[in-house]
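Hello, quick one for you while I still have it in my head. No rush at all, and the record is pasted right below.
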Amino acid sequence: MAAPALVALAHGSRDPRSAATINALVAEVRTLRPDLKIERAFLDLAKPSLDTTIERLARKHDEIVVVPLLLTEAYHAKVDVPSAVAAAQARHPGVQIRATPILGLEPRFLEVLDLRMREALKAARARELDALVLAAAGSSDPLANQSVARLARLWGSHHKLPVTAAFASSAPPATGEAVRAFRKEGRRHIAVASLFLAPGFLPDRAAELALEAGAVAISEPLGAHPEIARTVLARYAVGAVELVPV
């Protein structure tokens, strides 16, 4: 019996860099599991849609696991993903479709943040740091923002530096405000980490505001790192087990 197909479901963006990053991440997942059928889909603003991808997979697979490529349990995770999966299931009653938990904010993602930050500091020729800002998308859901704040505290304890969470939308503080707050404390070597999966409007806006406020370096989003790919497969494994008859 063939293993369930895997669909990596991203939010989607009009920015072509975003789709390119998701494509690269899916390629990384395929490298780790060449035995699996792995495709990508987008909730909005990019193609293919989830329904289009499942329509294609359903011709040869009767079990599909959908892994949402989302970092926080915000609106997209709680509403958009379940709605899209339910609609796809209704259109394909002969196929078992399971959505897994989101990627989330795994502590091991700090290794990826560190790598991206080292790259940014090298590019900016910045040799000193006395504060860090962890920039995320932001949400009207306070629990989603709190998860970012928890990761910021963990990152700060790891580096023995003050770290504050900042958001590109829906919640304060903005990245520029966070940088200015540190500067008011007398700190001058402040770098900003991009807690986004892929480039796009929100990461660009967060970076722009941070640079205007005096940040010395802005890291790139997490991107197609092997650690992210391994987490995709870990989520897939949970979904695949749930499809096993008991």
Summary: Residues 109-218 form a domain with the Rossmann fold fold (CATH 3.40.50.1400). The mean pLDDT is 96. The chain is about 45% helix and 15% strand. The longest strand covers residues 5-10.
